[in-house]
Specification:
Lipocalin, globular
Length: about 160
């Protein structure tokens, strides 16, 4: 009985460490001064992204607005298994994302618009101090031309 209880506690502790290992979790505010958007797309004027742990992955809620008044309001529930999932809502250039966790501070994403030409890969890195999250994106924009962006977020 004692051995079973010890094993159960060890498993719970290991799971807690695994859940805490994702440094991208939390609430992040888009830093317009440090970010570089895509040409031909209205720049983001404000954006708050909340990343919450779910079983084996993350729920990403993005709320904000572009300079032209277009609302950004999306929710994504994704596992870190690299399989594409649907992004629900409006205001982003992509409607499908596949996410893989590289390590506790780095994610790799593939973003696509199913009814268009948009297809990019993104690498998200959280700074050593955990205060800044930067996503660099490269690929093909909605217009079919090469695109490269950098989104910088400050931890709230």
């Amino acid at each position: 009985m004692r051995r079973t209880m010890t094993l159960a506690l060890a498993l719970v502790a290991a799971a807690a460490v695994g859940w805490a290992a994702d440094d991208t979790l939390g609430t992040w505010k888009y830093n317009t001064a440090k970010s570089k958007g895509a040409p031909g797309v209205s720049p983001i004027s404000n954006l708050t992204v909340t990343r919450e742990a779910i079983d084996g992955g993350v729920r990403i809620t993005a709320k904000g607005q572009r300079a032209d008044g277009t609302k950004i309001d999306t929710v994504t529930n994704a596992k870190y298994d690299g399989k594409p999932v649907t992004v629900t809502g409006t205001g982003l250039n992509w409607d499908t994302v596949a996410i893989k966790m590289v390590n506790d501070k780095t994610l790799s994403e593939e973003r696509s618009m199913q009814s268009g030409k948009y297809h990019t890969t993104a690498t998200t890195v959280v700074s050593a101090d955990g205060k800044t999250m930067t996503t660099n994106t490269k690929g093909t924009g909605a217009d079919g031309k090469p695109v490269s962006t950098m989104a910088v977020f400050d931890k709230q």
